[in-house]
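pinned: reference chain
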Amino acid sequence: MVSIDTLDVSHLIGQKVGSSTILKELARGGMAIVFIAFQTTLKRQIAVKILPKSILTSKTAELFQQEAEAAAILSHPNIIPIYEVGETYEFLFFTMQLVQGIALSKHLKLARKNILPSKRTLPLKTTIGFINQILDALAHAHEFDIIHRDIKPDNVLIEKHTRRPIITDFGVAKVLRNENKNNSLVQGTPLYMAPEQIIGPQTDGRTDIYAVGTMLFEMLAPVLPLPRFDSLESLLKRKVLNKKGIFLKRPSEVNPSLHRDMDQIVHKALNYEPDQRYANCREFSQSLQDYQSKHL
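pinned: its structure tokens
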């Protein structure tokens, strides 16, 4: 089978897609390729995400359509806007905002290269600001019965000039009102997946809260205190079987500048039992605002 990594799409440069012309390749993911394009109707650069039919399966087509539809339902300054969805004889596509910036994961990697150990995390106010905006965006999505299910630093772009975090990649999002009870496929990124997401399809907004809790811990810690794992399967197994969680230390133990109140916030977000986590994103956000007013 043709791999997305080796697929030659150079012939698409200059091709018209909807109201836009493809200019150059920008990135490749697990099942799709993103290009920079010029939208002639509004005279602006945008991004075009395509799924080549040469690697199309019924599942990838479903996920691709799901991503476009889920994001298109939502209108929020911290969620990537979708402009147009379509199909050519060669691929499925949708167009979206071209974000001038880099992924949050790259910001974290750059910070960790600092020669000063105390500077190997983002400033705490910046971290809380990013997380609160992400939580606000997810609260908006949850109000429309959409859960993202793959929140992680790779799927958050930080806009260069505004420093605004923008959530992308709703490819494994779940629309609860159209839930397929027969779909038991495990989807997501192991480190950020809540235990119930691994066990089965019965997930809700608290699944995203777990992922944000993991991301918050990652932003607070110069290095995540994880045990060694032989494989992704062993990580997933430990998450399901160990109700105390997978992290070996608390946030304040790996980052002495943190007050122990942050340990309680992260612990609550990462609780094994969904009922013991924050009930919703706004409650989670409020706890971070309280921490900021008390300790910063």
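why pinned: Confidence is low (pLDDT under 50) at residues 180-185. The longest strand covers residues 20-28.
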